C-alpha cells in the first residue's frame, strides 16, 4: 500500500514539492555559511519525493545553533515552502482518493518550517 501511495504522491504532489526544495537547496549552497540549510533542504526534497513509510523525528542533541538556524530558515524559505504544502494539499483534500495525500502534505509542514535538528527515519 505504501508503494501505491508513494507513486500517486509522486505524480500529484511529490515532484513539484521536491523541485521547490531542490531549488531552495541550490540557492542555499551558493554561500558557504548557508550550506547546512542546503543540505537540510536536499534531505527534505528526498523525503518529499517518497514520504510514505518514513517519518520525521527531532534530534534531542540539536543545540542552540540549530534553533537559530531554524528561525533564519523559517523567515527566508520555510514560510514559502510551507505555503507550497498548504496550496498542494487543498486540491488533494477535494478528492476522496487524495485525502491521505493531503494529510501527508500537512504533516510535512513542521519539517519545512524547522528542518535543522530533524531526522527522517524509516517507520518500523
Shape: globular
What would you call the structural class?
Answer: mainly alpha
Question: How many whole angstroms does the radius of gyration measure?
Answer: 14 Å
Q: How does the major sheet shape up? A: 2 strands, antiparallel
Beta content comes to: 5-15%
Strand order of the largest sheet: 1-2
Mean pLDDT across all amino acids:
89
Q: Which sequence of SSEs, written as H and E, runs from N to C?
A: HHEHHHE
Weakly predicted, low-confidence segments: none
Helix count? 5
Question: How much helix, percentage-wise, in residues?
Answer: over 70%
Number of strands: 2
Distance between the termini: 15 Å
Question: What report would you give on this structure?
Answer:
It is a single chain. By secondary structure, the protein is mainly alpha-helical. Helix content is 70%, strand content 8%. It has five helices and two strands, in the order ααβαααβ. It has helices spanning 2-28, 35-49, 64-94, 99-107, 109-113, and strands spanning 54-58, 118-122. Helix 1 runs antiparallel to helix 2 (35-49) and helix 3 runs antiparallel to helix 4. The longest helix has 31 residues, at 64-94.
